[in-house]
Amino acid sequence: MVSTAIVWDEALLGYDLGPNHPLAPIRLDLTMRLADALGVLTGVRRLRPDPADDDLLATVHRRDYLAAVRAASNGADRMPSGLVDHFGLGTVDNPVFPGMHDASALIAGASVAAAREILEGRVSRAVNIAGGLHHAMSGNAAGFCVYNDCAVAIAWLLDQGVERIAYLDVDVHHGDGVQAAFYHDPRVLTVSVHQHPRTLWPGTGLASDLGGPAAPGRAVNLALPPGTSDAGWQRAFHAVVPSLLAEFEPQILVTQCGVDTHREDPLADLSLTVDGHRTIYRTLRALADTYADGRWLALGGGGYALHRVVPRSWTHLLAVLTDRDLDPDTAVPAEWRSHAQESAGGIAMPMAMTDRERHDEGAVDTTELGDVCFTPWDGDVSQDVDRAVLATRRAAFPLYGLDPEDRRD
C-alpha cells in the first residue's frame, strides 16, 4: 500500500519577501485550504519540520554565505560594507527581510524531513510544497531563493548512502542551482524542462549543458519555445525523460513541481493549463513507480498566478501523491472561492478544478498512464517543440548508449 507524508507548518509562511513580491506565501495558504476543503489530505501523515542547521546547509552552501544571510536577517545595517550585494542579497529579486535565515532554514529542513520519511521506509512518497527553491547557489541568493532546499535534500540523501538520484525539474525556469550543485557528481541525474534560456531568465539550460568531465550526461536540459502548450510539453517530455530514467535506474525520484508554466503566469511565456499540470503529476507518479520503486520526493517551486492557478494545480499534486486523483470537473468549494477572491482584491476565481469549458476541443489528453505506455516519438521536426527535443536527444542520448534518431522510444 502506498503511503504519503506532507511536511507542513504554518511557520513555512514566514518565507515572505515583502508585500509586493511575486513569491507571496498566500499561494501556500490557499493551497492547503483548498486541499483540506476537498478532503485530499484527510488522514494523511503530517509532519512539522525543524530548521536545517548550519552543518546541514553547508553540504550545499558556503559558510561565509550562511553567515551573510544570518547577519542580513538581523538587519543589513549590521553587516560589513558590501556583503549584501556580494551575496545576492538586498536585490529586487531577493530583498532582505527579518528572520530570513530562520525561514529559509525551515524550508530546507522541511525538504530533508520529507526525504528522511522516504529513506527510512515510513512512506513511499513525501511532499514539501513550500520547497523547490532551485535557483540558490552555493554562495549567493538568486531568483527569489535564499537556500536551495532541493540540493540540500539531495545532498542529505547522498550522505545517507543513496547511490543514484534522479532530479526532474518542471518549473518554467531552468533548475540552475541544483544543476550547478551536482554538475560533477555522477550519482545525480538532473533533468530540467523549461522555457528556452534565450527567452527567459536565468539564461542557462541549453541542450549542450551536459555535466562535468566526471559526470557526462548527468545534466540534461530540454529548452522549450515560448507558447508551448500542454500537448507539446507532454510530447517533448516523453520523448526524452523515460528513456533516460530507464538507463540511469534511480533509487529515488526528486521533483521540483513549479507551476509557472501556466498560461496565466505573469512571469513567463509557456501555455500550459491546470489540466496539463495534473497530467504532469500523474506522469511523475508513473515514472516513480516504474523506475524508482515508487519512492518520490515532491517539492514546490515557482508559480505567480497566486490565487487562480497555484492552489488548484498544487491541490492536484497533493491528490496525485495520495492516490486521490480529483476529477478535473470537481467544483471549487464556494467558501474557498469567496476567501480567495477577497484576498485577491475581488478577482474572480475559477468554478472548477479544470481550465476546460465543458470538455472543449482544447482539453488536454489525460490518457491513463498507469502502465507507462508512452506514445513513441515519431521524429517529426516540423515544429519548434520537436526541434528542441531533437537537440536534447542528440546531445544526451549517445552518452547513455541511446540512438537519438530512434523513433521507437
TrEMBL record:
Gene3D superfamilies: Histone deacetylase domain. The keyword Nucleotide-binding does not apply. Pathway: Ketone degradation; acetoin degradation. One of its GO terms (biological process) is acetoin catabolic process. The keyword Cell inner membrane does not apply. Keywords: Acetoin catabolism. Residues 21-320 form the Histone deacetylase domain. It comes from the Bacteria. One of its GO terms (molecular function) is histone deacetylase activity. Belongs to the histone deacetylase family. This is Acetoin utilization protein AcuC.
